[in-house]
């Protein structure tokens, strides 16, 4: 594949592409988009408190017009058939759950989007979870943009389980391989990431 194959597309061409492309081509588009707009090198402090020589801003992809469509299509293709809803901890997962729910509707599936607050809101219902109330034991898949230690998605899992839902699977866009997968395995939670950090860095080396 030539370097930066998607940069040369017009807005119309890019939009048509992400709507119509097969999964392999769509995944390659997302990989290049992460390299192009989300990956940075420097000195960073992550939400986990760890220091890192690189940072991946997943929202640059999930809030990208064509990127959001691609994310929705990829994630829907990875949802088990019994999935009733997708959810994630605000703010990183918010555009992901919305894109996935909307994309599912276009594909004839009904997937409810839920947003899990970090803290209960201090007014109204004081709810931790925003979205329609589902039947007890509904199957919910947690979404995350970038997994480092895994604590953020695990907090969402805990809140959803406290609400009476079944949560046994986490889907992420990127796994930084810094303990998240191991944490989920120890908790008996299935985990899958679209990309590993090694794949993104290898593609960066090809492109630049």
Automatic annotation (TrEMBL):
5-phospho-alpha-D-ribose 1-diphosphate binds at residues 117-118, 121, 123, 144-152. Orotate binds at residues 148, 176. Its cofactor is Mg(2+). Pathway: Pyrimidine metabolism; UMP biosynthesis via de novo pathway; UMP from orotate: step 1/2. Residues 106-173 form the Phosphoribosyltransferase domain. GO terms for molecular function: magnesium ion binding; orotate phosphoribosyltransferase activity. It catalyses: orotidine 5'-phosphate + diphosphate = orotate + 5-phospho-alpha-D-ribose 1-diphosphate. One of its GO terms (biological process) is pyrimidine nucleobase biosynthetic process. Pfam families: UPRTase. Keywords: Glycosyltransferase, Magnesium, Pyrimidine biosynthesis, Transferase. The keyword Transferase applies. It is an enzyme of class 2 (transferase). Its EC number is 2.4.2.10. InterPro entries: OPRT, Or_phspho_trans_dom, PRTase-like, PRTase_dom. Homodimer. Catalyzes the transfer of a ribosyl phosphate group from 5-phosphoribose 1-diphosphate to orotate, leading to the formation of orotidine monophosphate (OMP). Belongs to the purine/pyrimidine phosphoribosyltransferase family. PyrE subfamily. HAMAP family: PyrE. This is Orotate phosphoribosyltransferase. It comes from Thermocoleostomius sinensis A174.
């Amino acid at each position: 594949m030539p370097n930066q194959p998607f940069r040369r597309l017009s807005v119309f061409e890019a939009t048509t592409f992400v709507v119509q492309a097969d999964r392999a081509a769509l995944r390659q588009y997302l990989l290049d988009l992460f390299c192009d707009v989300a990956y940075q090198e420097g000195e960073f402090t992550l939400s986990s408190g760890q220091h890192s020589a690189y940072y991946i801003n997943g929202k640059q992809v999930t809030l990208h017009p064509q990127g959001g469509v691609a994310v929705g299509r990829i994630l829907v293709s990875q949802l088990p058939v019994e999935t009733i809803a997708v959810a994630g901890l605000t703010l990183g997962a918010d555009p992901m759950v919305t894109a996935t729910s909307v994309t599912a509707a276009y594909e004839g599936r009904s997937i409810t989007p839920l947003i899990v607050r970090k803290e209960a809101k201090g007014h109204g219902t004081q709810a931790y979870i925003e979205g329609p109330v589902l039947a007890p034991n509904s199957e919910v898949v947690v979404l995350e943009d970038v997994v480092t230690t895994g604590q953020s998605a695990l907090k969402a899992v805990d809140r959803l389980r406290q609400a009476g839902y079944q949560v046994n699977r986490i889907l992420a866009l990127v796994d930084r391989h810094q303990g998240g997968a191991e944490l989920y395995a120890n908790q008996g939670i299935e985990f899958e990431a679209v990309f590993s950090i090694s794949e993104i860095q290898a593609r960066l080396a090809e492109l630049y």
